């Protein structure tokens, strides 16, 4: 099914109009919230189960496990997993745990391997998860080997991204989860033709929702980033679309200012905007003029005050870019360095302190404004997932 999406040209024109009127798209109401949701261990457990154990979230770009037997390991909120490219080109995910006595099977964050070999007593498993060898099996005793393969976690590759539902009992259907609009949007981007040029991982002493919120926020830019992003992007101007689960907004860059007085006519205005997509439950996808940036936020397996952020630059290959390999590497190194220093110097200190603040016994209630559109969607949808435990049977909510 083809969704009826507003053409990008019209959305950019609308962003310019909002800028001219010094306003932004707005939600219906101001909403209140309390500090407990960032510190409560019981709620954190419900989030792990009802959000990450129920719906698909992104773990990698396809190019990170490009070849058969390439794997990555990921600490998901409920399970430590291995994601591995199969011989037939498909992808599978497994709990990263030996079925003998529970040793951690694969320690490396990424690699390529023909089979997984347990460090404890050297049982081994094939990349499709089946139990390959029991050491000294003449003495071990007879077991039904088929039952003791690695525990499989639902995993699917779509739009050049690898998704999992962190729950062995669940099913996965990424298209149904994305819905017709976001599925069509992602299909149009050709992210599967790009490569993941750089990955940054950041373990922060901050709740994952505080982290996610900061990267859906068009309101803080000139205040928290006066000398970096604040010089480049307009603050608090968002041409926003709500798809009911996911959303996106266009924000004008300052370079668009030349068109404030003058009518741009048919001039393409694409170079003068950035576009932010929120993919429920835990990703921000930024469309830049020449590449995509993907930010994901995962809660710790226990502590509500810890999370891991991953930042990926997904870019045209060296060949498609027309650059020399040296120039290409230099470009993306430089890009990554700038992004990381903004994170470390400007966002993370504020967010760490927010987390500390949330531990105050008398924090009082707090507010999310009508102008904080994508944050409103994030809050609304997380609440829905938590309220509606029935979604826990997986990403089949549309079927
Ligand atoms: S725990 Fe893995 S072989 Fe014993
Ligand atoms: Fe920021």
From TrEMBL:
Q: Which domain of life is it from?
A: Bacteria
Identify the PROSITE patterns for this entry: RIESKE, RING_HYDROXYL_ALPHA
Among CDD domains, the record links this protein to:
RHO_alpha_C_3, Rieske_RO_Alpha_N
Coiled-coil stretches are: none
Alphabetized UniProt keyword annotations: 2Fe-2S, Iron, Iron-sulfur, Metal-binding, NAD, Oxidoreductase
Needed co-factor(s): Fe cation
**A molecular function (GO) term:** 2 iron, 2 sulfur cluster binding
Q: Which PANTHER family match?
A: CHOLINE MONOOXYGENASE, CHLOROPLASTIC (PTHR43756)
Q: What is this protein called?
A: Rieske domain protein
Give the originating organism.
Mycolicibacterium hassiacum (strain DSM 44199 / CIP 105218 / JCM 12690 / 3849)
């Amino acid at each position: 099914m083809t969704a009826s999406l507003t053409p990008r040209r019209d959305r950019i024109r609308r962003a310019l109009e909002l800028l001219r009127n010094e306003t932004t798209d707005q939600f219906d109401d101001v909403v209140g919230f309390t500090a407990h949701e960032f510190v409560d261990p019981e709620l954190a457990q419900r989030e792990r189960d009802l959000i990450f154990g129920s719906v698909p979230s992104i773990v990698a770009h396809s190019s990170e496990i490009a070849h058969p037997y390439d794997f990555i390991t990921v600490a998901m909120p409920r399970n430590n997993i291995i994601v591995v490219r199969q011989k037939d080109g498909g992808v599978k995910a497994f709990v990263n745990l030996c079925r003998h006595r529970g040793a951690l099977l694969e320690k490396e964050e990424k690699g390529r391997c023909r089979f997984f070999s347990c460090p404890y007593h050297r049982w081994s498993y094939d990349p499709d998860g089946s139990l390959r060898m029991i050491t000294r099996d003449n003495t071990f005793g007879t077991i039904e080997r088929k039952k003791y393969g690695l525990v499989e976690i639902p995993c699917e590759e779509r739009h050049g991204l690898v998704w999992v539902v962190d729950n062995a009992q669940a099913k996965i259907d990424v298209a149904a989860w994305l819905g017709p609009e976001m599925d069509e949007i992602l299909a149009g981007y050709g992210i599967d033709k790009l490569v993941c040029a750089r990955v940054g991982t950041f373990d922060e002493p901050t709740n994952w929702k505080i982290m996610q919120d900061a990267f859906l926020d068009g309101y803080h830019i000139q205040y928290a980033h006066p000398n970096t992003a604040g010089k480049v992007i307009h603050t608090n101007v968002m041409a926003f679309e709500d798809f009911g689960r996911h959303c996106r907004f266009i924000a004008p860059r300052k370079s668009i200012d030349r068109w404030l007085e003058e009518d741009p006519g048919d001039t393409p205005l694409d170079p003068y905007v950035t576009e932010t997509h929120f993919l429920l439950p835990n990703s921000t996808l930024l469309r830049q003029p020449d590449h995509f940036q993907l930010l994901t936020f995962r809660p710790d397996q226990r502590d509500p005050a810890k999370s891991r952020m991953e930042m990926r630059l997904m870019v045209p290959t060296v060949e498609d870019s027309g650059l020399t390999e040296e120039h290409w590497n230099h470009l993306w190194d430089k890009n990554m360095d700038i992004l990381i220093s903004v994170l470390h110097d400007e966002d993370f200190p504020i967010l760490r302190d927010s987390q500390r603040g949330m531990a105050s016994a008398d924090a009082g209630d707090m507010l999310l404004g009508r102008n904080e559109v994508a944050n409103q969607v994030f809050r609304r949808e997380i609440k829905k997932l938590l309220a509606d435990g029935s979604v826990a049977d997986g990403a089949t909510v549309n079927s």
